[in-house]
Specification:
Elements (H helix, E strand, L loop, with lengths): L20 E6 L35 E3 L4 E8 L2 E9 L8 E7 L7 E4 H4 L10 E2 L3 E4 L3 E4 L3 E3 L2 E8 L5 E12 L8 E9 L8 E8 L2 E12 L10 E5 L8 E2 L3 H4 L16 E2 L3 E7 L9 E8 L5 E3 L2 E6 L2 E5 L2 E4 L3 E10 L12 H4 L3
Parallel strand pairs: 6-13
Antiparallel strand pairs: 1-12, 2-12, 3-11, 4-9, 4-10, 4-12, 5-6, 5-11, 7-8, 8-9, 13-25, 14-22, 15-20, 15-21, 15-25, 16-17, 16-22, 18-19, 19-20, 23-24
């Protein structure tokens, strides 16, 4: 078994040896180099460690200046990122943008606001208990998506607003190992329709070319009407599909593994978070300033990846009830993050909007 095949561990093969070498980047070891962790003499914890000195949590985090982009990781391959942990105040979850670059590419393969990447798009904490993404009290973000690279990996974080971000804690764990020829590159893309134009579909993904497989969806969905809102179908157009898709769902709650309006117990939304799918967040109106219902939903195609050979487009409808006899196209606020693997090069991403369009208000 190759070193790379031994990376994606589960209880069945956890005992198998591998030639991979584990490294980790954090504010205590900015380069991830062997034997270089915990050496800082200056940092955000220097005052607290003043009576203890070097080696005593001198540099546990970083601060990010207004409108600045920082490089969190620069790694020479081959290898694979295995785990990312981070935490920062929720007010920054839409104003910080994650970007990942594989093998010296000029445009990122991942470009997503920080909170949405971890299924928390509303700048309010909600726990997630899934296999690839876990969010734990009180705002600990974890990603276990496997992200192979052959030459290099670079991760940046952009602060879009004129405020200093204080206390950004992070750790990026990776393995240096050979990468097999058929290993694809991880991608993620964010889009928002606010509001969605009447009688149109929200596009999660378009312009994807090459061979790959779609592995996940996160939606931060804000409802602008009374009544049930989740009749819309998700559609996967692949390999030269035109007017009609190859895969067509039967309803929004169906796609996320629920049923019958997510209503359980009667009169309430039933929040759930499972290894591969969930309605992990329901934000209720408060009768004063919170006037809308907002939802967070994820669906991971880990056991059922949607494989395409040439191209892929993904859309979802916003559909409610006009009466008991007819559907009502909705003009909702839908922010989506699509996750997929594919061969490079990837197609062009749409330009990320300014913070005014990303902001949760």
């Amino acid at each position: 078994m190759s070193a790379f095949n031994g990376l994606n561990m589960h209880l069945g093969n956890l005992s198998l040896l591998s030639g991979a070498r584990t490294r980790s980047i954090s504010a205590e070891n900015f380069t991830g180099e062997k034997g270089q962790g915990g050496m800082a003499t200056e940092g955000t914890g220097a005052v607290q460690a003043r009576n203890l000195g070097q080696g005593w949590k001198v540099s546990p985090s970083i601060n990010i200046a207004p409108l600045q982009t920082v490089t969190l990781a620069e790694i020479e391959g081959p290898g694979a990122i295995q785990h990312i942990w981070l935490t920062v105040h929720p007010r920054y979850w839409r104003s910080l943008v994650f970007r990942f670059y594989w093998d010296d590419e000029e445009t990122p393969s991942i470009e997503v606001p920080l909170g949405d990447f971890f299924c928390n798009g509303w700048c309010e904490r909600s726990n997630v208990s899934s296999i690839p993404v876990a969010v734990n009290p009180a705002g600990g973000f974890n990603s276990y998506w496997e992200m192979p690279f052959r030459k290099a990996a670079r991760i940046t974080l952009e602060n879009l607003v004129d405020d200093e971000v204080r206390g950004f804690y992070y750790q990026i764990t990776y393995a240096l190992t050979d990468v097999p020829e058929n290993a694809a590159y991880f991608h993620a893309q964010w889009r928002r329709s606010n509001p969605l134009p009447y009688k149109t579909d929200h596009t999660l993904l378009d312009g994807v070319t090459g061979q790959g497989h779609y592995v996940g969806t996160y939606l931060a969905w804000g409802v602008n009407n009374n009544g049930w809102w989740g009749e819309g179908e998700i559609k996967f157009f692949m390999d030269s599909d035109e007017a009609f898709p190859t895969i067509c769902g039967t309803g929004t709650e169906d796609y996320f593994g629920g049923a019958w309006n997510f209503e359980h117990p009667k009169g309430e939304y039933g929040i759930y978070s499972t290894p591969y799918l969930g309605l992990s967040q329901v934000i209720k109106p408060d009768g004063l300033y919170r006037s809308q219902q907002r939802f967070g939903m994820y669906r991971w195609h880990v056991m059922d990846p949607i494989r395409f050979q040439q191209d892929l487009r993904v859309t979802i409808q916003a559909l409610g009830w006009r009466t008991e006899q007819g559907y009502l196209p909705l003009k909702d606020d839908i922010a989506s993050t699509a996750f997929w693997y594919q061969s490079e090069p990837h197609g062009s991403f749409p330009p990320l909007p300014t913070y005014e369009f990303l902001e949760v208000i």
